[in-house]
Amino acid sequence: MRSLWLLHEMQIEFKLHEIEFSMAALRTPEYLGISPLGRVPCLTDNERTIFESGAICQYLCENYDTENLYRAPGHSERIEWLQWIHFAETIAVHGASLVQQKVFIAPEKRSEVVQKLESRRLFIALEILEPILAEHDYLLQSGFSAADTGVGYSIHLAQEFIDITPLENVQRYYDRISKRKAFKLAL
Fold it and tell me: Domain 78-180 adopts which CATH fold?
């Protein structure tokens, strides 16, 4: 959803290839030839294939941004932009672990301890955002950027597993970004 949301924000024409979200579909030789770890998303642009969502975001911004979602080298917010693009993965890794526990691992092999640990780690990662979002509406002072699509998606994933309402600023931020037209299209 993260990359799809960014494509919609950037209003780029694209062709979406959907595959079943299952181990069997993600491990076919055809898909592994595109995405070596059998993960989603994966972007093919001309002859270039990119299979890491942070890299997809940076690539799209560097090559197609017309909506000021990018903070290019030399921009005063460049370091913060990069930080949040990559922090989105930090948040998402805990959500991905919970997806594994709830979707891919057989019920009898699921770990309550892992679920509690990853839920706590996820909450702690989101707590880092509280003071930032107390200062301004989006991650960067200048406004909405591609970093918000990455972190926003990670919050979207997180709220499927944990209660984010105690994090008032994060909750308000999520409420704000989830009303965006491109967010809704990505769903």
Answer: Glutathione S-transferase Yfyf (Class Pi); Chain A, domain 2 (1.20.1050)
